[in-house]
Each structure stands twice: as structure tokens, then as C-alpha cells.
Amino acid sequence: MIFERKPLDIDKIKVTSGEVHIIKDRCKGCGFCIEYCPRDVLELSEEFNIKGYHPPRVKNPDNCVECHLCEMLCPEFAIYVTKKEDAKVSAR
Amino acid sequence: MKIGVYVCHCGGNISEVVDIKKVMEFAEQQGDVALVKDHAHMCSDVARKMLVDDIKEYGLDKVVIAACSPQFHGRTFMGTVEKAGLSPYVMEMANIREQCSWPHYYQPELATKKAKDIVKMAIVKARLDEPLEKKTSPIGKRVLVIGAGIAGIQAALDLGDAGFKVYLVEKEPSIGGKMAKLSRTFPTEDCAACILSPKMADVPANPNIELLTNTEIESISGFLGNYDVVAVRKPRYVDITKCTACDKCAEACPVVVPNEFDEGLSSRKAIYLPNPIAVPHAYVLDDKSCLGLFPLACSKCYDVCDAGAINYDEKPERINFTVDTIIVATGYEIFDPRKKKVYEFAKSKNVLTALDLERLISLEAEGTVLRPIGRRIAFIQCVGSRDELVGNEYCSRICCMYATKLSQLLKRADPKRDVYVFYVDLRAFGKGFEEYYKRAQRTGVKFIRGRVAELHEDSHTHKVRLKVEDTLTREIIESEFDLVILSVGLRPSEGTTKIADTLRLIKSPGGWLQEAHPKFRPVDTLADGVFICGCAQGPKDIPDTVAQASAAAARAIRLMNKGEYEVDPITAFVDEKLCSGCGICAGVCPYEAITIELKDGKRISRVNEVVCQGCGACVASCPSGAQQQRWFMTSQLHAMLSAALGEEV
Amino acid sequence: MKKLIITSENVKFLQKINELADQDITLCEQCGTCSASCPMVAEMDITPSQLMRMVQLGLKEVMETKAMWVCASCYTCTVRCPRGLDVAKVAEALRQVYLRKALDYIEIKKIPKYEFVSLPQIAIVSACRKFTG
Question: Does this entry carry the keyword ATP-binding (chain C) (predicted)?
């Protein structure tokens, strides 16, 4: 019940933050990265890549906590994450 | 056969109404009656000695005592008759007080006539009484304690120290319950965590206690001496024997969620230490907020753990064991303040519950200031208690005292604070409570008698304005405060409600577990071998909780200590020649004591005499008369009816 | 100094109000929620919980107070009473006791025409409602 409230110290907590890099032309549009991202960072973009697929695009860049799941799931090695030093917290 | 009949005057209670002489003469005329005596007080030592001597001297083999109710002195006379060497079940009590002289006080002649009938019925029943013997059933030394708050901990320690094997099951990852959340306890202002911590540490140190945390009870079946328990241990994902509580995993974890221990006022990570004094002192991974385990999304905690304590492959584990007795100590939860919309808890920044304040004060004491508490503070009492609008008519017992205590802690931290307590009654009932209240008044805390009707937080200043009548001066007060604390009442916890269903325990109004007798059996339940203690039984403070926990442990030890316990022989049994295996009795039995089994190819009903409580439902339901109840055989009941209806027996 | 002697007259008065209001007014625990909820309490000479108190003690002096007439029958007191009492109904019961005496009985036909014409409309309407029963 109490968890409708936002914790009072949330602005003080720093967590890792990641930057998503997408190698658009390697992507084959399988959608795994979008589906499995636990922080809802990605969505399907409108543009086409050279193979004719819709690669992902970053929807919520601040949400990424560099868990690297997208990087590990991608069958084409088309996406990777680097650590951002500037950490802004966004809790679930 | 030699029946001895004793008619008691009951110190006038019977003799003032019923003509004792006439009853005695009547009794002498009945067949098989060898001796008729009267006495002023049959229950006195003198009279009972006379009874023992008479049995030996006259060779009596059946006894009828016409006196008070068997509920009253039944056990007394059974004991006396047993001392004389007879079975206690050849003693019949003819109730000519509660069922004769008392209700028919103004009609002595009719009362005397009725007394004769009652005595005759007792005599004909006694004629057919069999000399039943009490049976014993073996019982071991294993106890299940459900809930490891202060009540469960105390009971477990008492039992463990006494040499009994205890399974202590707690659904949270750490023991300690609500007491671990408190700042200080009334009336001594002892630091709650400081006094609780050594007790918590004693639990894993006790070799007789098996501590199962993060574990919930799935099902319990069976009966006293033979409870089969199935518990499910939820995966912690951390090996408690390896975890050093170094906090590196929590630092690395990217998920931030509200911390339940601080009532959502602070944050924690998905992998966290449940509370600062947690026992077992190990971290736990919350799989609901973790980024993902299947597939494994993150693994930052695993990567930094030097002790190698993290194991993502842990699965829920079913644990089976058998125990002899059970103690339920599942505790309380606080009333949800969102149910009182007039107090605007959900939309206000500066309206908090008392438990929130306990956490704020505790954290401030260790150096963490989550938010300023302000100068003008108001406590609103009876939130969710004594309130039929939210369905809680009862008083929660502790709120008056905890508000007084919190007011003292606030005043001491900043003496310039203006602290108000808006109460309906100030219930300071316990040892040292009234003195503590007086002390609080001296420090300038203003106690105003009036129930706050409504409050509203200003959207700009965030100050809270409340409206209340000072019923002692009849003035309406409208005043602004920096912080308003709702002194929320207690409710039975979710665990308490679930266990009541699992064990089929009766509940009191309010949803608390019902004790067997409010005065004489406050920690027993009507289920043999199941005991309750602490707030599961009703709201109470810590001293009362600890007292009840030790009491429950003592009651359990009382049952188990001799290695066997007595079973009343007044149970149902089956005449297998008459039984057709129809199964009606099994369906009617409220204790599930009857099963239908195959014996030599024939379906036969079988009564578990340990579980049978002698209610007689199966006897009444049996269409063939195969079910019989000892001491209330159908032949006896027919004889009593004939006697009552004036037919010759 | 007041000598509090509860006579059978007081008891009868309480019983009458209990019957009219169809509840047991002795159950009021004097918590003051009704008074603090009342939007008209500032205009009252006694507070709603004081009114309940006087009825509990069977004090007929309550009939001389202004409070029950200032009551707007908004029912906030009733919906908030933690004991589930209908406070607004008690105020109505007291009003009924007064009105049934028909002390201010009006016969519309007998009102002089000049008064009829100069009185505010609402006064005529409420007079018809209250004093012609």
C-alpha cells in the first residue's frame, strides 16, 4: 500500500547509466532487444536500414542502466552498450 | 450392581427449593440402589472423603450425584471416584441445580417432582454405564512456530531451551517482525532494535531451533501429535552461509525500488539487506524488481560478489516435516490510512502514519535524515480503531501510548516544538503507563480531547490544516501544522488470515484468532495442540506479547512433556457388523475424524479416536445405528427417555 | 453550582427523543467529530456534540437553544459518526418535539393582507412548511 509514495531519498541514489549504440545496418529486425529490454528503452523505428528492415531506436535514453541484455541477445551483434559517467536515477 | 446415590443440598441452593427428603425416598425405591445419602456440600473435602470411604465399605460400583452441573464439578467427582478405584465413567451427575432448583425457584413442588425425574434418569443411565478407561496417545517433542516476530522468537527460544525441537517459519527474509521497525518502546523508551537484537541472535544459536526464513506454510493436515506440514521456501538467490553482507552487490545493482522496511519512505536496490539487524544477516534478491532472471538480464551483483554467494539458479523448495503441536504467532499489520479519506493520506506530503514516524526517527538517530519533521506537529488518535465506518469497532490498545511516546521523542529532539495529541480517551492502562503520560504532560505536550473530523493540506505551503472540537471546552479549533501523524490502529496480518483458513481456526470480531476461553485459556484454541500468541490473538503491546508467547510455549510443553497425553474415551466407535460403509458419518463429522476404508473387501467406517471430540453428530446421522458413542449409548438414551416419560424401566 | 439530579422527567425526555430519532443516543461517546464536521457550527450556541450530551442527560434546557434551528441537515455529522449514530436525525427529533406543540401555529387565512404582501416570500413558504402541521 505504501508503495504509491515516492521514496524521499530517491534523488540521492546514483546507479549506473548506459548509452545504447545501434549498428543499424547489421540489424535484421528480429525485435528481441525491444522485447526483452527490462527498462523499456527501445522501440521499433520508422526508418529502413540497408537490408530493408526497421532497426530499433532509443525511446527512453535515461532509463538505460547498462545491463547489456540487448547486447547479449542480439543474434547479429548489431547493438552494444557503453557506460555513461553521468548517472541520473530513474527508479521503476 | 450397587448404585450409591448422593443428594447435595448445595448450601441451600438446592435444598431451599427441592424437598431433599422426598428425593431421597424416591431414590431408595429404585432398583439396584444400595445406598442413599445427602450432604450439605458434596464437593467439600469432607463429603468427598465420605464418598471414597462409602465406595470401599459398601462395595459400590456405580455412583449418582444429584447436585450441580457436570460442567461445574463433573471433573471433581470423576477424580474422587477414580481415587476410590472405580472408573471415572461410572459416576453420573444429576443436575438438580442449574436445571431444576435455580430455574424453578418459585415452584418448589414442581421442582421436587422434576428432581425425582432427573435422578431417575441418572440412575437408569448409570445402570448401563461401562467402566471406560482413559486412553493415552504418544506425543513427541516437535513444535512448529509460525511467524518469527517477537512473539514467535520468544516462544521458539522458550521451547528450544526446554529441549523441544522447533521449526520456526518466517515468510520474510529476516526475523524480527514489526518490533524491528520501531524506534523506542513505551514506557521505558528502550531502543527497540537494541533489545530485540540479542534475542534475534539467540535464535540461530539455539541448536534446537531450525530457522526457515523466506518460507511460507502451504498446507497443514493431521491432528495433535501428528501434524504434517508442507512449507515452501522461496528462493533467496543468495547463499546465507557465504554472504558477508559487504554491500558490493547492492552498490552495483541498477534497480531502485521503495524499501518496505522503511514503509516506502526510503529506497533499496533489487538485492538488499532486509533490515540493519537482519537475522540471517545476508542479502536477498527480490526477483519481482530484479531486471530479470530468465533470461538473465544484468548479473552485475554476481560479477562483484567476492564471496561467490549469488546463485541465480535457486528454485522454490518444498519442505515437509511432521510436528506434534503448533504455535501461531503471525502478528499484525497497520490499518491502511487510505481507507479514511477525510485524512487525505494519499494526496498529502505532510500526513504520515505513526509507523512512518518511527522509521524517520530511527533513521535520524543513526544519522540519516530523510525529511525535516518540522515544528508544529499533531497526532490524530483512533485512526481506524473504534470506528464503525471502517468496520473496526475495537480499540487497538497501543496507539494512545505510542503517540505519547512519539510526542516525547519529538519534544526531546527539539524542545521548542509544539506537539499536540488529539485523543478521544487516553488509555494508559499498563504498568508505568499513567506515570509516563503524566511525564509527557509536564514536557508541554498538549493533549486535546476531540476526534479530528477532517484535514486538508494546502497545495502551496504544504501545511496541514485540521478541524477538531475541544470537547472539554466546547470550542471548535481550526489550526495549521507542519506535520500530521495518524495514529493508525492494528489489523490482523495477511498471514494471520491465511493461517486461520489453513488450520480452520475460529476468528473473533475484527478478524483476530479466537482463543478457547477469554479468561481461562487465552492462548489455547479449540483445536487441540494449536496455540496462538501475540497480536495474532488481538492487538497488544510488547510485554503482553512476550507474556503470551511464553504462555503458549508452556501450554505446548504441558501437552508434550510426558511423552503421552490423555484421550477422552467418550468417542464414537463403529459396530462393524451393522456398518454398510455408506459414508454419511464421514461427511457429517466436523473434525474430519472419520474415514471410510476397505476391510476384507467391505467398506467400513473408521473413527480416529484421537481426533474425535465426542459431539455425536455421526451417531445421529447413522441410518443403521452402527455408529455409537461411548457413555451415551443409544440404549442409555432410550432408557433415560423412558424414565423421563414415566414409563417403567 | 448545578445539582445534577436525573429525575424520571429527564429519563422520559431521553426516551422520547430516542423513539423519535429511532436510535440509542446513550451510545454517543462525545468524540466531537460531528461538531468539527458541522459547516454551521460557528453560528450555533451549543455544538452538536453538546446537543447530544444534553439529550443524553435528558436536560430539557436543550429545547431553548438555537443550535437545532441553525442546523442545515447536511448530514455530514451522520456520515462521519464513528459510532454510526444519526446526529442529524436527533436534531430533527428535537425540532419535531417543538413543532408538534404547534406553538407557532399559523392559519394562513388569518394573516392580515398588508403583512402578507410585505413579508419576504421565503418566510411565507417556510412558515407554511413548519407551522401549519
Answer: no
